[in-house]
Amino acid sequence: MILVTGGAGFIGANFILDWLRLNDEPVINLDKLTYAGNLNTLKELESDTRHIFIKGDIGDSQLVENILDKYKPRAVINFAAESHVDRSILEPHAFLQTNVIGTFNLLESVKKYWTNLPNSNEFRFLHVSTDEVYGSLERTEPAFTEGHKYEPNSPYSASKAASDHFVRAYHHTYGLPVLTTNCSNNYGPFHFPEKLIPLMIINALSGKGLPVYGDGQQIRDWLYVKDHCAAIRCVLAGGKVGETYNIGGWNEKPNIEIVNTICELLDELRPRADGKPYAKQIQYVADRPGHDRRYAVDANKIECQLDWRPAETFETGIRKTVQWYLDNQVWVENVQSGAYRTWISKNYAER
Ligand code: NAD
Ligand code: DAU
Question: Of 65 and 342, which is predicted with more confidence?
Fold first, then answer.
C-alpha cells in the first residue's frame, strides 16, 4: 500500500493510473480537490478497490495521522501542491499554505508514523518537486545539476524551494528516509488548461487568441508526463535515501516553437473550417512578471545511477497530447466549468 497526495491532479492522476496498470499494490489517494483536482480524470478507477480516494488536505494532521495508522502505507509520494506560476503571482497565499505549511504538517504526521514502524528503514517519503527552484539560466549556461544553487524567482518556486528544504531537514535532523525529485515541465493527458500546452490547444480549437507572453523566446525543457511517472517509480524503487534526482528529457524549446508546433499539428489533424492556419490566432501579450528566461535539466544522475530514460521524444509526445485533447473534449469542458471559469474571467479579460 502506498499513499499518494494530490492524486486527482495532472501528474498525480497519471501516476496512479499507470501504477495500477502496472501492478496490484493499492493506492490511497489524498486530495483536497481544489480547482485543479478532478475525479473525472480517475473515472476508470471508479469501481476499482485498489484505489481508495479520500478528500482532504495534506495539512490536516489529524486526518493524515488517521489515514497512516489505518492503512499503514510503505511509502508516501507527495504530489499535492498549488502548481501554477501565474496564480502564485496573483494570489500567493494558497501557495504558502499548501506548499510550505501543508508539506510541513505532512512531514510531521509522517515522522510520527514512521518513528513507530517496526520496519522503519524500508519506509520512503518521496517529495515531488520542480526544476524551477534553481531559478533561471542564461542561454550559454549548462543545465541544472542536483548541485545547482537554489534561486527561486516566483512565489510558486519559492514555496516549492521551502518545501524541499523542509524535506531535506527532516532527513538530516530526524533521519526520515526521504527522496526528492526535481522535474522539468510536464505535458500530456489531463493537463489542466491553464498551462501553456493545453491552453494553446483548447484556445486554438475554439477560435480564441493564443496568448504568448513577451517575445515567446523563453525556454522550457519538456517531458511527457508518463516518463515523469516512470522516473518517480524508479526513484522510489532504487533511489538513495536523502538524495535528490533531477528529471528531464533533454527537450529545451522556446515557447513560440511549442505554440507553432501545436498549430501545425492542428492544421493537419483538425484543419480550421476556413482553411487558414491556426498560427493566425497567435497574439503576443504582456509578459509574466519576473518571467524566468530558461530552464534546462541535466538528467545524467538518474540516467546513469537508476537507468531511467524517457520513452517519448518531444515529437511523439506532443502528437499524442494534441490527439488526446481532440479525443477528450468532454473532460476539457468539465474541468473548465465552475470556479476555474469565474477565476479566468476575473483575471484575464482576453480569455
Ligand atoms: P496540479 O495543480 O495539476 O494538481 C495538484 C493536485 O493537488 C490537485 O489535484 C489538487 O486538488 C491537489 N491539492 C492542492 N492542494 C492540496 C492540499 N492542501 N491537500 C491535498 N491536495 C491538494 O499539479 P501537477 O501539475 O499535477 O503537479 C503535481 C506536483 O508536481 C506538484 O508538486 C508540482 O509542484 C510538481 N511538478 C509539476 C510539474 C509540471 O510541469 N506540472 C513539473 C515538475 C514538478
Ligand atoms: O518547470 C516545471 C514547472 O513547469 C512546474 O513546476 C510548474 O508546476 C508548471 O506549471 C510549469 O511552470 P511554467 O510556468 O513553466 O508552465 P506554464 O505552462 O505556466 O508556462 C510555460 C511557459 O509558457 C512559460 O514560459 C510561460 C509561457 N506562457 C504560459 C501561458 C499559460 C505563455 O507564453 N502563455 C500562456 O498563456
Answer: 65
DSSP 8-class letter at 210? E
Look up residue 60 and give its three cell numbers: 490536516
Return the number of other C-beta atoms located less than 10 Å from residue 269's C-beta: 11
Selection from 17, 117, 108, 93 nearest residue 58 by Cα:
108
Residues with active-site annotation: 131-132, 156
Write out the three cell numbers for 292.
Answer: 524566468
Round to whole Å and give the CA distance between 106 and 5: 10
Q: How far is the CA of 340 from the centre of ligand 1 (A)?
A: 16
Verify whether ligand 2 is closer than 6 Å to residue 218 (CB atom): yes
User: Cell triple for residue 5?
Assistant: 497526495
Higher pLDDT, 351 or 51: 51
For residue 6, pLDDT over 70 is answered with yes
User: In angstroms, what is the C-alpha Rg of the chain?
Assistant: 20
Nearest Cα neighbor of 298 from 259, 244, 230 is 244
- The secondary structure of 150-200 as a DSSP string is P---SHHHHHHHHHHHHHHHHHHHH---EEEEEE-EEESTT--TTSHHHHH
Ligand nearest to the CA of 16: 1
Domains detected in the chain: 2-347 (3.40.50.720)
Q: Does residue 162 line the site of ligand 2, with CB under 6 A?
A: no
Other CB atoms within 10 Å distance of the CB of residue 254: 15
pLDDT per position as a tens digit, 238-260: 999 999 999 999 999 999 999 99
CA distances from 322 to 38, 191, 202, 228, 328 (A): 20, 11, 10, 18, 10
Cα–Cα distance, 122 to 120 (Å, whole number):
5
